[in-house]
Amino acid sequence: MTQSFRLESGGLIDRDKKISFKFNGKNYFGYEGDTLASALIANGVHLIGRSFKYHRPRGFFGAGVDEPYAIVQLYRNGETEPNIKATEQELFEGLEAKSVNCWPSVNFDVGAINNFLKIFLPAGFYYKTFMWPKSFWYKIYEPFIRRAAGLGTASIKHDKERYEHKYEYCDLLITGSGPSGLASAYSAAKNGAKVILAEDKSRFGGTLLTSEVNIGNQSGKEWADSIISELKEMPNVTVKNRSQVFGYYDHNMLVMSERISDHLPKTKKFHPKQRLWYIRAKEVLISSGSIERPIVFGNNDTPGVMLSSAAKEYLKVYGVLVGKKPLVFTNNDSGYETAIEFKKNGIDPIILDTRKEPKSEIIEEAQNMNINIKNSYVVVAAQGYKKVKSADVAKISDNKEELGSIENIECDCICVSGFWTPTIHLASQSGNKTKFNEDIDAFVPGISKQNEKTLGAANGIYTLEETLKDSFEKGNLLSKKITNNENKFSFPNVVEKKSTVHDKFWCVPLPKGKNYKRFLDFQNDVAVSDIEIALKEGYRSIEHVKRYTTLGMATDQGKTSNLNGLQLVSKIENKVVPAVGHTTFRPPYSPVSIGAIVGREVGKHSKPTRKSPMHSWHEKNNAVFVDAGVWLRPRYYKRGEENLFEASKREAKNVRTNVGVCDVTTLGKIDIKGPDAAELLNRVYTNAWLKLPVGKARYGVMLREDGIVMDDGTTTRISENHYHMTTTTAQAANVLSHLEYYLQLVWPELNVNVVSTTEQWAGAAIAGPKSRELLKKLFPNSDVTNEGLPFMGYMEGDLFGVKAKIFRISFSGELAYEVNVESDNGYFMWEKIIEAGEEFGIQPYGTEALSTLRIEMGHVAGSELDGRTIPYDNSLEGLLSKKKDFIGKRSLSRKAFAAKDRQKIVGVVPLDKKTSIPEGSHLVKDSNAPLPNPKLGYISASCWSVEHDNPFSLAILKDGKNMIGEKLFVMSPLKNKIIPVEIVSSHYVDPKGERVRS
Amino acid sequence: MLHIKCPHCGLRSQNEFSYGGDATVKRPELGKEISDQDWDNFVYNRKSLRGKHWELWQHLSGCRQWIKVQRDTATHEIFKTLKANEEIS
Ligand SMILES: [Zn+2]
Question: What is each CA distance from A695 to A300, A575, A716, in whole angstroms?
Fold first, then answer.
C-alpha cells in the first residue's frame, strides 16, 4: 500500500523510521511519531468500525482523547487489549489492531441491519424491548446485545505485564502542557516550587503545535520546545508526557496514569507497562484546554466528517491529509486555520461559514489566498455511506431557521467547527460548581472548591495573550506563596490572527420532507430525534434524559456531545442551558486500564504472606498448606497416597493415643505491662482477673459492647505487672485496637502498655497422653510433673540452651503444653521436639486435625464465635462474673439475649453414624415440611470423631439446652442432602475434662 | 483519599487510618446503673449527621494512637484534629 494521503514533507514524524503494522489483517506502514489513526488515514483507510447501536460505518472524528469512533482491539507482544483509541495509540513496529463492533467484517456487517430498522430502535429501546418476558433476559437478550455491541474483548489470559503505583507530593501539579500549562509551570518553577507538569500526549505543547502564532520572536512550537527543555533541566520540576491526570479526589489528591511502555513493541526489561501516580498537590493548576465541538447536521456521522481541529492536527503534526476535496463548515474563525493549512499544502478547500459578515485578520488572510468562502451557508446533510462523497449545502436565513435551495457540493471530507468547549472535568470532580458562560456557550469552572485554579482555554479564555498573561501570573502567585521567592521576567510579545467571536449556531434544521439522522452522541448513536422522544415521554431531568437515551454515557463520556445535547433540551424545553444543568463529571476522565488500578497487588502479592519460623520444616515434611488470614499454616502432613481425610484422622488419632505437635505461632500475642494490667484484664474479660497468681494462666472471653463474643484466649501472669495475652489468629489485630481504644479514650487513668508480640514468639503445642514424658526430655532441669506444672500453670525453662516459656494449656482436650521461644529459635525448638518425641511416636499435626480435636471436645472457635453469638450460645455463661461489670455485660440483659429458648451449642451425630454433615447446613424438625422450612439452627463445624469413629458436628440450635436426645434433620440444599440426626452434648469426648488435668 | 493530620505524626493519607465512629459518644461508667434506653443509645443509636462531625480515627499504620477528627461529612473538609486526651470544645 502507498501512503496516498501523506504529504511529501512536513509534520513532526520521523520519516527516516518506517514502521510496519497490521489493521484487520492487512499490512501497512507509517512512520515513527504516527498514531494508529494518522497512519491509517495516510494509507487511505477511513472506515474503522461500526457504531454501537445502528452499526453505521465509522471513521475518525478527532485526533486525540475526545475520539468517539476509532476504538480498536489492540494486539501487542502476544497480548490483546480492548477499548483502545486509534487516535491515542502510538504506532510501533509490529502493531496489530482490529475493528470492534462489527461482525463478520467492517465492510459487511450483519448488525447494520439495525440501521435499516432504526425506526424500531428509538430512545429507550433496550429498556422497552428487552424488559420481558424476564426469562428471556439471560438466554436471549443479553447474549444478543453483548455480541452486537461492545468495545472489544478482554483477554482471559494472565497479564504478564507489570503495573506500578507511586505516591508523590508536590507544590504545584499542572495538568496539560499547552500554553497555559507551560507558562504557569515556567513561572512556578522559576520561583523554586516543586512542580509536576503532566501531558497526556507524547508531545508537549498542546495547541501550540498546530496554531499559527508567535510568542516573542519564536513560533508557538519553538517557544513550547524551549520552555520544555528548560523545565526538564530544572531539579525541582518533573515533566511527564503520556501521562493523564484522570481523577481529582478529596484533599487535593489527584491520580495520574502514565503509559510508560504502551508506545513500544514490547515493555523493556524491569520496566512497568503503566504507572499510576497518586499525587498530593498543594496547588493544582488545571490547564487541560478545550475540545472543539461539532455542529449537528444530517448524516453527520458519515466517515469523513470530523472536527476541523483534528484535520489541522493530522496535517501539521503527521503530514497527513484527511481528504483531498475538503469542505470546512464553521461558525467561528477556527475553521479558517484548517482551510489555510489545506491551501498551503496545495489543496483547495471550501469554507461554509454560518456567519453573515465575519471579519478578522485570519479571514482576510484566507480571502487573500483565494479560498472559496460562502457566508451564511450550512451543511444540510453529508452524502455517502462508507465515506463522504458530497454535501448538501444551503444558504440559511438570518434567524437561522429557513434553508435556501439545496445545492450539492462534491467533497471527500467535512471539517466541522462549532466553537470550543472547555475541559472542565477535573475542576468539576474537585467539587467546583461550574457556571455557564454565555459568550462561549459552555460551562466554565466557578469558585474554587479545593486548591485548584483553571487556566486558559479550560477556563474559557480563548486568546493566547490573555491565557499566557493569566497563567504566568497564577503560576507566579501560587508558587510565591509556598516558596517566598519571586523571579520577575518580561512578558513576551504575542501575535495571533484569529478572533474569538463565534456564531451561536449549533444545529442545522432539517429541510422539508427529509428525515436525516442528526447525531449528538457519536459513540452511543444518540440522535436529535431520540432526545425529542425522551422529552415527549416525559423525561425532564437532564440526568434522566441522559440515562434513558444513553447520551454521553459511552466511554468518551460525551466529550463532543454533552453541550449540543443540553442545547437541544434547552431549546425544546424553552429554558436557558444553565437551567437545564449538566450531568456530573466522574473520574476517570478517560478509560484507565484495570492493570494500572490494581498495580502490583495481584496474585500472591494481593496481600502479604506470613510464614512461621518453622515453615521450611513443614515444607520438607510434605505439609499441605492452608491460608489462615495472611498466614500460611500446615493443613496436614501428607504421607504416601493419603488424602486430607485420612491424614487428618491419623494425626488426630495420634494426639489422642501418643503425642502430637502443632505449629501455633500464628496465634495473636499481646504483651501487657503496667501496675494496672490486672485491672484492664478484669474490665475487658468477662471473668475475674484480679486474683490470678503469678505463674498461672487463665482462659478468658472478650465481648463487644453489644454483648456479642469478640474473641477468646488464655492470658498468663508472667510477673507481678506483666501479662502475656493470646488471641485467635483471625482477631489478633482487632483485639489490640480494642485494648488501645479503651486505654487511650475510655480509661486513660489506667497505667498499662500493650504491644503486639505475635511475630516475636514461635509457638509449638505439644498434646497427647505422652506429652509430659516428652516434656521431661526437653526440659530435664525443670519440674514438669503434675504438681510442679499443674493445668493452667506456667514456667520458664531451658531448652538445650534456649530460653523457653512453657504454658500448660490445651485446645485439643488432651494433656497438653504450649512452648514458646524467640522466633529466631523456632526452627531449633521444632527440630528438638520432633527428635525427642520420636520414641513416643510423635507426629506433627495440621489445622485439620486441630479442628477435629477441638470439635469433638466441644471447644468453640471462629466458626462459633462468628459475630452473631453471645456467651450463653457457646455455653460460656459460666465465665460471666456476677460480681463485676465488664465490657458488653449490660447488653446481655437485653430481652432477646435473656430469652429462655435462646440458641445454644449442641453436638450432632448422624443416625447412621456414617454420613458426614456439611458445614453450614440447616437443622429442621420435619424434612418434608413445605418451604420455607422453619430453621432451628445451623451446623457450625464438622469432623470425623477419632474417639468414636463416626461423624460429629457442632451446631448452634434454638433452645439447644432442652434439645439433647431429640431427633432432627440436617438439610443441605447446596449438597442436596437430607440427613437424620440426633442431638447430643457438645462435649463428645471427656465431658468432665479429666484428661487436661491428668 | 482524605489527608488527615495526626496530632502526633502530622499529615498522613487516609489509608494509614481506620475509622472508629462518633467521638462524642461517652461510654457509661462501668458498674453504674443505666436504663435500657440509655444503653441502647450508647451502643446502637447514632445520628447520621450531614455537616460537621467529631469522629474517631486510629492511626493504625502509624503511631497507633486514637485521635479525634472534626470532619464535614458532606464535603470531607477536616477542620481540626485532637489527641485522645484532648476534650472536644
Ligand atoms: Zn500518628
Answer: 87, 83, 7
Beta carbons within 8 Å of A54's beta carbon, 6+ residues apart? A112, A114, A115, A118, A121, A525
As a whole number of Å, the end-to-end CA separation of chain A is 92
* Chain B nearest CA to A752, separation (Å): 14
Given a contact cutoff of 8 angstroms between Cβ atoms, the answer to whether A845 and A657 are in contact is: no
pLDDT, tens digit (0-9, with 9 covering 90-100), for A268-302:
999 999 999 999 999 999 999 999 999 999 999 99
Q: Which H/E stretch holds residue A940?
A: strand A937-945
Name, in order, each residue with C-beta under 8 angstroms of B53's C-beta and a sequence gap of 6 or more: B22, B70, B71, B72, B73
- Residues in chain A within 8 Å Cβ distance of B3: 250-253, 280
Q: Distance (Å, rounded) from C-alpha A315 to C-alpha A324?
A: 12
Q: How far apart are CA A187 and CA A620, in angstroms?
A: 64
Locate the DSSP E strands across chain B. Answer: 3-6, 10-13, 18-22, 52-58, 66-72, 78-83
CATH architecture of B1-24+50-89: 2-Layer Sandwich (3.30)
Angle between helices A771-778 and A826-837 (to 10 degrees): 120
Which residues in chain A touch residue B1, judged by CB atoms under 8 angstroms apart?
Answer: 249-251, 253, 278
Distance, in Å, from the CA atom of A480 to the CA atom of A494, rounded to the nearest integer, reads 25
Nearest CA in chain B to A705: B43
Residue A606 confidence (pLDDT): 87
Longest dimension (CA), chain B: 42
Q: Provide the residue type at A691 as one letter.
A: K
According to the model, what pLDDT value does residue A727 have? 96
Q: B26: which 3 cell numbers?
A: 461517652
> Residues with Cβ < 8 Å from A893, sequence gap 6 or more?
none
For chain A, list the domains and their CATH numbers.
14-148 (3.10.20.440), 163-290+422-495 (3.50.50.60), 294-418+499-514 (3.50.50.60), 524-557+561-581 (no CATH), 663-845 (3.30.1360.120)
Q: What are the strands, taking DSSP E only, across A33-99?
A: 49-50, 57-58, 71-76, 79-85, 95-99
Tell how strand A326-330 and strand A350-353 pair up: parallel
User: pLDDT tens digit string along A733-747?
Assistant: 999 999 999 999 999
Chain A: closest CA distance from residue B2 (Å): 6
- Cβ of A897 under 8 Å from any chain B Cβ? no
Q: What is the pLDDT of residue A123?
A: 61
Interface test with B, best of A890, A895, A897 (most B CBs within 10 A): A890
**A137-187 pLDDT, tens per residue?**
566 666 665 555 567 888 888 899 999 999 999 999 999 999 999 999 999
Q: Which residue of A has its CA nearest to B12?
A: A280
Choice between A223 and A114, residue whose per-residue pLDDT is larger? A223
Three-class secondary structure of residue B12 per DSSP? strand
Interface of B with A in 25-54 (CB under 8 A): 27-28, 30-31, 34, 36, 39, 42-44
pLDDT over 90 (residue A582)? no
Q: Which of A756, A743, A751 is nearest to A721 (CA)?
A: A751
Question: In this complex, do B27 and A746 lie within 8 Å of one another by their Cβ atoms?
Answer: yes
Q: What is the DSSP letter of A872?
A: G
CA dihedral A75→A81→A84→A88, nearest 10 degrees, is -60
Q: Which of B20, B39, B65 sits opposite A890 (nearest CB)?
A: B39
- pLDDT attached to residue A557: 83
pTM comes to 0.89
- The 10s digit of each residue's pLDDT in A890-928 is 999 999 998 989 999 999 999 999 999 999 999 999 999
DSSP A170: E
Give the model's confidence band at A652: pLDDT under 50 very low, under 70 low, under 90 confident, else very high: very high
